[in-house]
Structure formats: C-alpha cells, structure tokens
Design brief:
The complex is a heterodimer of chains A (about 500) and B (about 500). Helix content of chain A is about 35%, strand content about 10%. Chain A is an alpha/beta fold and about 500 residues long. In chain A, a hairpin with a 5-residue loop joins strand 10 and strand 11 (about 455-460). Classes of the chains: A alpha/beta (about 500), B alpha+beta (about 500).
C-alpha cells in the first residue's frame, strides 16, 4: 500500500469505509507531513490536537455506521473562512489574533459531514493578489520549483490551499475565488480548482473581499474530489441572501464519462497576443481531447472580454473599499493608538493593511467618489452586464466553454510583486467568469517547457456544475496528469 | 399665495421662511432591520447586539420582512407611491458608532415615493405638504463621552435598528406649520402602529432644513439642523435659525450651506460642519443584498388591513357626529383619544360628549400628567354623565363636580355618575313648587334688594344666585331665572 498521504480524497474515503486504515491514522500521517512542510509556508496555523480529536470522533462514527460523506478526511481551510475558537486572520495584520466566536457556513457544512481540520491556510491578504505574496505571513512557495531550483509562487489568492493540495498536506482544501483565486493557483500547482456558481456556497462567515464576486470552492487532487467537496460545501443559507435556494445534486454521480454530443465552445477573444505558444498548444490539445471523447467543437465569440479586466479592477476594489471599512481597530483586531479617533483609524489602518490592500482600498474609494462614480463604477457595471450577456449568447451555441486557465505558468517569487498591472493580467481568463457569476473549473492538463503545470479552464452555465464536472473528468482522464513535485521542502 | 402672517420682519423688509423636514422614525419592530437582535429601549449597553450589528468579519445582513411591511404600511398611510422594486445602498463614512463603516440605506431607489399629507393650521385652514420619499435605513449606535475621563465608549444596542426617513418637500413656511407637520406625521405613524412616535426616547426625530428669501424670490441657501427631538425644540430651532439668517443677510453676510446643531439649553443653533467638510458618502448598491422586490398582492394585503387614518376619521366625526372641524381635529390627533371619544359618545349627544372629553377629560389628564390609557374615568362614565345633563338630572356645573369626584376616585372606586349623584343628593331640582318656594323665601327676606332690582333689573342675577345657593346648586338655573324675573315683575 502506498503512503496514506499519497491518497486522494476519494481513495482515502474508500479506504476508511473499507477499514483499511482509521481516521486517526490518516490524520496522524497528514499532521506529520504538515509539520515537515514549513518551507512551503502553506499553513499559517496548525491545529493538530483539534485534528486528532475530530479524527477520533470520526472513527467512532465510522465504527457505528453514522459516518458522513467526508468522515475522517483531513483538510486545510483557507484563512478567509471564520472558524469558531480558531484564529482567523485573512492573512492580514489588521485582524491580529482575531478568534471568531462563530463558524462559517461552508466549514460548518464540512464538519457536519465529518471532515477533519488540519489547520488554516495562507492566502493573499484579504484574498487580494495572484501570487500569495501579499500575505502578512509571507509568501507561500509552490511545491514545484523553477528549472534552477528557484522558488515559484503557488498562485493566489488561495496559494496556501493550492500548495497544500499539491504537496499532499491534506486530502483537499477550501478556497475562495473573486477573480480567479481558486483556478489560477490550481493551474500553477497541478491541482483541480472549482469556482462554483455565485450563490451556490454561502458567503456567511467568509471574510469578504468583493461581495458580488466572492465564491467559495474546493482545491483538490482530482475532479472527482472536487465533486465530493462541493457536495458538502454547497448549501442554501438563509443568512446569506445572495445564496440560492436550490437542491444540492449528487455531483459525484454526474461523473459518467459520457460527453458524446456535448457542444464545447472555443471563445476566439481568449487568443491573446501575449499567450505563450505552449499554452496555445495545450489549448488545442484540450480541444482535440474533447473532440476525441465525442464532443462537438464550436467557435464562439465573447466580444466584451477585453473590457472584463478593467471592469473587474473597478468593481472589486470598490466593494473592497467599503467591505474593509469595518477594520477600524474599534471592536476587534489590531489597534494603533492615536491622539484622537481619526488619528487612531489612520494609524491602525496604515499599520494593519499591506500595500496591495491599501492600493485597492484607494482605487475603490476613488472609483466611488462623487464626480467619478458614473464614469467608473456605473460604467463597470454596464460592462459587467454585457459580459454576462456575451456568455448567455454563447450558451445558445454551446454547453461549456474551454479556455486556458492562465496566460503563463507559475512565476518566480518576487518577479511581479513590484508591478501590480503585470500581476493583474494573471486574471485575464478567469475574471469574466466571476463577473458573470458562472462556475469555472481548472483541470491540470500538461507541463510547460520547464516542467511546470498548466491548467485548462472549463466554464459552465449557471448551476451547471454537474455538466462542468463531467467534462472536467473527461479532460482529466485524457490529460492523464500524474506529475508530482519533487519533495525539496521536506529535505 | 403666501399669507402675510407667515412672514418675518427684518430691518430691510419682510422675509419668508422655507422649511423642509427629514423625519427619522424608528420602525416599530421587535428586531433590527438586518439582524435578529432585539430593539427594546433602555436595555443594558451592548446587550442587544448581534454579530451582524457589530460588523464582525464575514457577517451578512438579511432584510427583516416585517420592517418592509411596516414601511409599505406607512407609505400607504402617507398616500404615497409604493415602489415594488427598491435598492439598498451603502453610505460610507467612518465613525465609532457605525461598526460597518457604512450605513445601509436607500439612496436612488427608495421603497416609497411621492406622497402628501394635510396639516391643520391654527387658523383652521388645511395645507397640503408634499412628501418626497420614504426610505428604510439602519440607525447607528451611540457614542458615550461621559463615562471615562479620556476615552469614549460605544453602545451598539441601537446599531442596526430600522428607521424610516420621511423626507418632505420644502413646503412649510413657518415654525407652526413645521410643528403641525411633525404632529401629523407622528399621528399617522401611531395610527398605523409603524412607529411609537416617542420623541423623548429618540424614536422620532427630525432634521430641519431652513432657508429664508424675499417673498417670491428663488430659494435661499439652506442650513440643516440635525436631530431635533421635540416639537417645541423644532419651533425654537426654526425661529432662531431663520432670525439668524435674516440678520446675517441684512448685515451684508451670506448664508453658508451648513449642518447645524440645536442647543436646547440656550435655544440657539451652532455650526457643526460646512459644505466643504461634508462627507463624500460614496453611495453604491449594497452587494450583500439583492434588490428588494415584492408584488402587488403583498401591498394589497397590507392595504386591506389599514386602519382608519386621522383625516378620514376627522371627516367622519364631522359628518357623523356633527362636530366642528376644530373639535374633530383635536379628537383625532391621537388614535386613543378618538377611540375614547367614540366609546363615550355611544348613544349620547356627541357634541356634548366632545365638549366634556376635550374640556374635562383632556384637561384633567393633562393636569395629572396621565395618558389617555390611564384615565381614571372611563369613556362609559363620561357618556353617562353627559346623559345626566341631557335629561336634566344634573346641571352643567354639578356635572363638573361629579366629574371631578369620579376623576379623584379613580377607576378602582368605580362609581358611576348616577351613583354619585344619588349618594350625594346632587340630583337637579326640577320640582317647580320647591323652586318657587325658595324664590319666594329669598324675595321675602330681602325687601331692600327687591327695591333695588326694580330700579336696576340686572340685580335679578343676585336673586338667582341666592336661590341656587339655597338649593345647593341643584335647582335648574333656567327655571330659577325665569321665576325670579316673573316674581320681580321684570319679565314684561
């Protein structure tokens, strides 16, 4: 038998069900592996004792036949999800040692289904970033290294989640995606990332970045694992009025492998000039794989794509500038003294927020200001409607869309951190999906010339996760991605 | 045309005051606008604060359907347009008692649009004041600056409580009109049960926009007086502010657009912040909340259960009970007063009942500092007492005495007017024989006065008084008067 930490989520689940090993054994193995992973900096808080308590409880349930769908499966949780009694920081100094007295709906769903918490995962501060370098806990290193052994970013903002899954520091991880924060890190680390339809998972208890775009989802080793995780994470929640009242289907059952007759749309606007040829080639490879599996390939147009990134970088910062106003040092988190209340606010926020967060708060504040609101925010909302309309029109001709996930493979730590605009371009293929509220799935599909993972993205109809996952599994099978990073970090 | 009496005089001529009001009315609801926390007044600081009210990370607002219903009910009561689609916006600013760093309000698309209400002016005229809009919004918490020598404390009990902001058009022209407007709005809210209207507890407060101009001119620059919390203060604040503006302009100055505060201690307003210092609130639609939508059936169901409102009640009192418009408007100013009157008037002479309710009941309650619900005299007792006057059992003056006895005794003693009249022997003497005997007695005993009365017929009143005294006030005064005149030979 292979090591317990080599198992993916479905395999571990099946092993527990067949009593091949216990939840405590599985959890213990992961705890040890997490302990030896500090060079990756994926976990910002480890909860081994809590994990063992949960695993023991899971073993009891596995023994008495009351096991949940995720019983005894150890996972990591992005530090954006509030966890009751466990420090939650959004990787920002401003939250200090904040310990929520409540549990986010998504994580509560996971615990209700038996999952085991290994700890909290690093991310870009308040999920703002595409490289996990804006975290107050420092950057996360991609388990994959560059050709010369240089450290690479794991993508962001869910870089801790993607690195942890790629390095097998948990059978799966929760993540969030506002403009690509699940799919881009998944693509950079050879993992599967699923951003569900807006409203599929509750946002209650998830630290907000941009409320109209934020959506929780899983990062996993396989498409099947993503299906299983989503089945537990998704729910209607009356405490989040943007969550949608809709039954949660059995996503795993949707993985039939049959996509005959399915129409796959290829949006021509995603062929950007700067795209490396190997990504272009991988995209073509993906098209061929799906055609070979019986799908029909159709060319479609999403004409307003070029406006998506600018619109996103107005809407998201605008919402963020308001969402982050609550971090004022008055009621919780870190506070810096001042001579009066305004001074205290200024000192607290100057010391508590990092540069990227400050940049976005300022951009957002500007975009909402009197005299600029119509020119920026209102215009961006118009673009957003046009982009949603683009997708609606495309879906008259096809069922899913296939695109690259990112315009490049993982880059070196420090390479883009000084150039925000370069960094923002990472989201060029992913932000449209958030603006339209659609589900998107990144599947590891190949390697670039330096042996770094590349992902392909599938975009589905609203609440079309079953179909999306079905195509994703077919793509995954065809790609046969089995590469694992060299374990340099545990040496 | 503006009636001249509303103008205020200045050194250089007359000025007209232009007033618009924003009334903040706390929605009568047991829980807050976007959270389940309680709203009861006077609770321990920070004991009614949910995670949402404290703006903890990741907390989300959920609209309270009952507050929406209350806003629609109020909109219908203000005869205003109900918008079946409205949007909640965020109004962004930093303040310690505003935990989210923004107030959730409605900016461009409020739940209620244009409406109108009629106010009764002191001269008996009726004036229509336009309502521009009503929107729902969250209240802020309360900063406490007197609890610690160097720090301020914050009480978040009020944070998130639902308010209705009712914005009038600048249709008022005097402090009295503004006061009548606030009273009328408050009466409507109380009738509807959508706000308790309690100004002392802050459930109802007003921002008053004041400007002055020469009659017929364009609108002048306005100043907004924030958070005035009594009808009397509203009057004082307007009088002071209008005078300040007139004096300023007449001295060659210019009114600056400002937010001002009214200080009840000296009856003056002072500047709080100027237009330049005004916040840029950066309103935008709250992405945590979907637009608020409901169908006509929702509105119809609320409309169906709407109570009779002050204007309709007043019209009915005038037509059904034959009351004067003044009496009717006094009686309908509070729903409880109107109900008291109607209960008392049942089967009785309504005009006489109205007189006693307004004259004796209200005066008595006012003097004793009691609310109508605490009245020691029941409506039925009032009705019965009026009945005793009507059937000549007692005179008006005896009735007043009886009323006072009932009022003193309180409801526990529970003695009805007829019982008191019987027990105290206050029944009016209508036996003409007895009255005549008494008149004869007084005339016989006072020959000098009789002689004087022959000279000066007005002296007859003295005889009437003597007879009334002799009968303990129980004689029918009209009968006595008639007899005295006849006996003195003055009725010719």
């Amino acid at each position: 038998m292979s090591k317990l930490t080599d198992l993916n989520l479905a395999q571990a689940r099946d092993g527990l069900a067949s009593k091949a090993f216990s939840a405590t054994e599985l959890t213990q193995a992961h705890i040890e592996r997490v302990e030896a992973s500090d060079k990756l900096n994926a976990y910002v808080l480890k909860t081994p004792e809590k994990a063992m308590d949960m695993a023991k409880a899971s073993d009891a349930k596995l023994a008495d036949g009351t096991a949940g769908p995720l019983e005894g499966l150890p996972i990591g949780v992005k530090d954006l999800f509030c966890t009751q009694g466990i420090r939650t920081t959004a990787s920002s100094k401003i939250l200090g040692e904040f310990i929520p007295p409540y549990e986010s709906t998504v994580t509560q769903n996971l615990w209700n289904d038996g999952a085991v918490l290994l700890g909290k995962l690093n991310n870009d501060e308040f999920a703002m970033g595409s490289s996990n370098e804006t975290s107050c806990f420092g950057p996360v290193n991609n388990p994959y290294q560059g050709a010369n052994g240089e450290n690479l970013v794991p993508g962001g903002s869910s870089g801790g989640s993607s690195a942890a899954v790629a390095a097998r520091l948990g059978v799966a991880a929760t993540a969030t995606d506002t403009g690509g924060s699940i799919r881009q890190p998944a693509a950079f680390t050879g993992t599967v990332g699923l951003k569900p339809t807006y409203g599929r998972c509750s946002r209650w208890g998830v630290v907000a970045f941009a409320s109209s775009l934020d959506q929780a989802g899983p990062i996993t080793q396989t498409v099947r694992d993503a299906a299983i995780m989503l089945g537990s994470m998704a729910s209607f929640d009356s405490r989040d009025t943007t969550s949608v009242e809709r039954d949660v289907p059995n996503y795993e059952a949707a993985l039939t492998g049959d996509i005959k007759g399915l129409r796959v749309g290829i949006p021509k606007e995603y062929r950007v000039d700067t795209m490396p040829s190997e990504i272009e080639a991988l995209w073509q490879q993906g098209i061929d794989w799906l055609r070979d599996a019986g799908a029909e390939i159709v060319d479609v147009s999403l004409p307003h794509t070029k406006y998506a990134l600018p619109a996103y970088y107005i809407i998201a910062p605008a919402e963020a500038s308001s969402n982050l106003a609550r971090y004022d040092g008055v009621r919780y988190g870190a506070r810096q003294a001042g001579v009066d209340i305004d001074d205290m606010y200024a000192n607290t926020r100057a010391a508590g927020f990092g540069d990227e967060v400050k940049r976005r708060v300022m951009v957002g504040t500007y975009a909402l200001s009197a005299g600029y609101y119509d020119a920026y925010y209102v215009k961006a909302l118009q673009v957003r409607r046009l982009i949603a309309q683009d997708f609606n029109q495309a879906y008259e001709k096809c069922d899913v869309l296939l695109t690259p996930t990112t315009p490049s493979a993982a880059f070196a730590v420090g390479k883009e951190v000084e150039d925000p605009l370069e960094m923002y371009l990472n989201d060029v293929f992913t932000v449209t999906v958030n603006l339209a509220g659609l589900p998107g799935l990144s599947v590891p599909a190949g390697l670039d010339g330096n042996g770094l993972p590349l992902g392909l993205q599938l975009i589905g109809r609203a609440f079309g996760e079953e179909q999306l996952l079905r195509v994703g599994e077919v793509l995954e099978t065809a790609a046969g991605f089995t590469t694992r990073p060299k374990e340099w970090w545990s040496a | 045309m503006v009636s001249n009496q509303n103008l205020i005089g200045g050194a250089t001529g007359d000025w007209e005051i232009v007033l618009g009001l924003e009334i903040h009315a706390q929605v009568a609801s047991n829980s807050k606008l976007f959270s389940g926390a309680a709203t009861e007044f006077g609770a321990e600081p920070n004991s009614q604060v949910s995670l949402v009210d404290a703006a903890m990370p990741g907390m989300l607002p959920v609209i309270n359907a009952y507050c929406v219903e209350q806003a629609v009910r109020t909109g219908l009561g203000l005869k205003a347009q109900v918008n079946k689609y409205s949007v909640f916006d965020r109004k962004n600013y930093f303040y310690p008692d505003l935990p989210q760093g923004y107030q959730i309000s409605q900016f461009q698309q409020p739940i209620i649009g244009e409406g109108a209400i009629e106010i009764d002016l002191p001269d008996g005229a009726v004036k229509t004041i336009g309502v521009e809009r009503l929107h729902l919004e969250q209240d802020a918490g309360k900063s406490l600056h007197d609890q610690h020598p160097s720090q301020s404390f914050v009480d978040l009990n009020r944070s998130g409580v639902a308010l209705m902001e009712i914005v009038s058009h600048p249709d008022m022209r005097s402090a009295a009109e503004a006061q009548a407007y606030v009273k009328k709005v408050r009466a409507i809210l109380r009738y509807l049960g959508t706000c308790d209207g309690n100004m002392e507890q802050g459930s109802l407060r007003a921002d008053v926009n004041v400007s002055v101009r020469r009659p017929g001119d364009e609108l002048g620059t306005r100043c907004e007086i924030k958070n005035v919390n009594s009808i009397r203060f509203i009057g004082q604040a307007i009088e002071h502010e209008a005078r300040r503006q007139v004096d300023l302009i007449e001295d060659g100055g210019v009114v600056q657009q400002q937010t001002r505060l009214f200080d009840p201690k000296n009856g003056e307003t002072r500047a709080m912040r100027s237009k330049e210092e005004a916040h840029d609130y950066r309103y935008f639609p709250d992405p945590d909340l979907l637009p608020l939508e409901f169908d006509q059936a929702f509105v119809d169901a609320i409309a169906k259960d709407l109570p009779e409102l002050p204007d309709d009640k007043k019209a009915r009192f005038i037509s059904d009970y034959n009351l004067s418009p003044y009496d009717a408007s006094v009686l309908v100013s509070e729903a409880e007063n109107a109900a008291f009157f109607e209960a008392a008037a049942e089967g009785q002479d309504a005009k006489a009942v109205a007189n006693m309710v307004i004259g004796s009941v209200f005066a008595g309650l006012n003097k004793a500092g009691l609310a109508i619900a605490e009245s020691p005299v029941t409506p039925q007792q009032v009705g019965q007492l009026v009945g005793l006057i009507r059937d000549d059992t007692v005179s008006n003056s005896i009735a007043k005495e009886v009323f006072e006895m009932m009022f003193e005794a309180g409801p526990d003693q529970g003695k009805d007017a007829s019982v008191i009249v019987e027990e105290k022997g206050l029944k009016q003497v209508t036996d003409m024989g007895a009255i005549e005997a008494s008149v004869d007695e007084v005339i016989a005993a006072n020959p000098d006065k009789v002689a004087q009365a022959q000279e000066r017929p007005k002296m007859a009143g003295w005889f009437v008084g003597q007879v009334m005294q002799a009968t303990g006030g129980k004689a029918n005064p009209q009968a006595v008067n008639k007899l005295v005149l006849a006996k003195l030979g003055l009725d010719g």
